[in-house]
Amino acid sequence: MRIFLHLALGSAVLALGFGQAGYAQMNEPAYVITYIEVTPTATERAIELLKAHGEASRDDDGNARFQVLQRIGRPNHFALLETWVDTEAQATHAAAAHSNTFRMNLEPLLYSPYDERKHGQVEVRPSIDDNNAIYGLTHVDIIPTYLDPGVDYVRTLVAASRKDAGNIRFDVLAQDSRRNHMTLVESWESAEDQAAHSTAAHTKEFRAALLPLSGSLYDERLYRPL
Predict the structure, then answer these.
(1) Residues 37 and 115 occupy one common structural domain
(2) For residue range 49-91, what is the model confidence (pLDDT) as tens digits?
(3) Which of 62, 106, 153, 203 could be cross-linked to 85 through a Cys-Cys bond (beta carbons 3.0 to 4.6 Å apart)?
């Protein structure tokens, strides 16, 4: 399969419009991914706080989705995956009393800063129920001068991966502050399905094509929902 080579030749045409797609707009959904790392002895307390925060946040006006995830193999590492109807709803949630209380109670448990990253959509399909899935969150850093072909490679991976056995969700988001920093958001029916995808020919080809365009390591992390 030579699809990534063909894309490199036509990236200037295929990537038209990404300048608008890479940022969360006021009338578009707003996405937030937060990485949380607590000391191992504080894991159970952190789970209590995260679950309670998730329940409260799902009741906030404008919330479309609020998922609390625990990293596989690193149980003291967590992620929050939020979707809001717009940036105003997200901002209101962030300023809510229960959000401030959560942050205050969580702070003493952290050994790494609370890492919140706001995103806009690049390739997103309507959400479906995947609350029992295996999740993958992958940070992709593309060198700015190679952004257009990099986006094409990512979009081609998304299209192919959505056809893989066991795939539930395969979306791509771009950070609001740095649109060359993207997050792949995946969910799979089983760990075996996710592993098969990771070694599929189209995934290997994507990784090989992306490497010369990358500004940092391809950071893939797997999670289960809490």
Answers:
(1) yes
(2) 999 999 999 999 999 999 999 999 999 999 999 999 999 999 9
(3) 62
Which pLDDT score, from 0 to 100, does residue 20 have?
40
Residues 140 and 206 in one domain: yes
Phi, psi of 145 (to 5 degrees): -70, -10
Spatial contact of 190 and 104, defined as CB atoms under 8 Å apart: no
Q: Nearest to residue 153, comparing CAs of 20, 10, 19, 24?
A: 10
Tell me which of 121, 149, 184 is where a domain ends: 121
CATH number, domain of 18, equals 3.30.70.100
Is-contact 69 78, C-beta < 8 A?
yes
Count other Cβ atoms within 10 Å, centred on residue 224.
14
Residue 41, classed as helix, strand or coil, is: helix
Global pTM reads 0.88
